[in-house]
Design goal:
single chain, alpha/beta, six-stranded parallel β-sheet, four-stranded parallel β-sheet, 43% helix, globular
């Protein structure tokens, strides 16, 4: 995009005013929570609403009543979450008083800006206004269809970085021998529970890389860093600070094995970056991630049943690496990704005729 004036930042009220006064065919919502959901039914009926889900907006929202309800935490991570919540609640009376004052001011002065996105009734009503839905994985659409208020039709949209199109090849990838565990400091990584499957395995000669620079609290990140340092000793590298993209990808190039213990769709950019470069992946066999990548045909493995000393030391064969790389390339090239947008354009154009 060459002209900055084509980008306009507006409030929800201004958005509704623009939609009412001008002629638009569609509203694309990237992550449901970027739109205050009680504004959804203010959108003019003539406008088609597209929801491109990211993950958090369906697996973690509404709070305590997620729209797709699956167990996200394993035992140790669930216990840690409860402990962290108890620690948060142990604050001084003065701190509690300050929080109450801030909450009161926010409610009284900024009430119109409250989006009520964590109210199940508001969320469900907003869902009824969606005409088209695209999840990160196709099976997410099937999970949403189980809700009676969800009647959107399925479209396909996938985020992409054009820079990746310039670095695509089908040669057999060369990988390192280090181990990557998780993608962030989000507790959905189930970091503590991963350790149960690594006992008795010798990581000598390898570095264990644990990204913890985003996605969760510093308290959680520091807790996990300490637990992993205790478990692995000086072979562990806990990434507590942000890294430039180029440096992070360089670090990924030293990885030969990746372990991801999420249960929901999550960490897909990291997972696919590793798949395309021939890294051997172990995922939770009960996860949305595992079910998707298995159904597509990738060579991936179960952390629960496949991980041991032998599988850690045995890389994918050259044929398996090339298979994963070509499978990724099949839907990640420029023409394929642009076709998603052309299909959406044709859909809207046909409806106008």
């Amino acid at each position: 995009m060459k002209k900055s004036e084509r980008v306009r930042i507006v409030t929800p009220d201004e958005l509704i005013d623009i939609l009412e006064k001008h002629t638009y065919d569609a509203l694309f919502i990237h992550n449901f929570l970027y739109m205050p959901l009680h504004y959804m039914w203010k959108i003019p009926a003539s406008i088609k609403v597209f929801w491109f889900a990211w993950g958090y907006d369906i697996y973690n929202t509404p709070k305590d009543h997620p729209y797709i309800s699956i167990p996200l935490l394993h035992n140790k991570s669930q216990a840690l979450l409860e402990e962290l919540r108890r620690t948060q609640n142990k604050v001084s009376d003065f701190t509690k008083f300050k929080r109450e004052i801030k909450a009161y001011i926010k409610k009284s002065v900024q009430y119109k800006r409250q989006n009520h996105n964590d109210e199940p009734s508001v969320y469900k009503k907003a869902v009824t206004r969606v005409d088209y839905f695209s999840g990160v994985f196709p099976l997410e659409y099937n999970l949403l269809k189980e809700h009676p208020e969800f009647h959107a039709k399925r479209v396909v949209y996938e985020y992409t970085n054009p820079a990746d199109w310039e670095n695509i090849d089908t040669e057999i990838p060369k990988i390192g021998h280090n181990v990557l565990i998780g993608n962030s400091a989000d507790i959905n990584n189930n970091h503590l529970d991963v350790l149960d499957y690594l006992k008795g395995v010798n990581f000598s000669g390898k570095k264990v890389i644990v990204p913890l620079s985003y996605g969760g609290s510093k308290h959680y990140a520091n807790t996990i860093a300490q637990a992993y340092d205790h478990f692995f000793g000086n072979v562990c590298i806990s990434l507590l600070d942000y890294m430039p993209r180029e440096d992070y990808f360089k670090l990924l190039s030293s990885v030969g094995v990746g372990i991801f213990f999420h249960e929901r769709q999550q960490a897909t950019c990291n997972i696919e970056e590793l798949l395309r470069h021939g890294v051997k992946l172990f995922l939770s066999e009960t996860s949305i991630n595992y079910k998707h990548y298995k159904s597509v045909g990738y060579h991936i493995y179960s952390l629960q049943h496949d991980f041991n000393q032998h599988t850690l030391e045995t890389p994918l064969t050259d044929e398996q690496k090339l298979h994963n790389a070509k499978l990724w390339l099949k839907t990640s090239n420029k023409e394929y990704r642009l076709k998603y947008l052309y299909d959406i354009y044709d859909l809207l154009n046909n409806q106008k005729q």
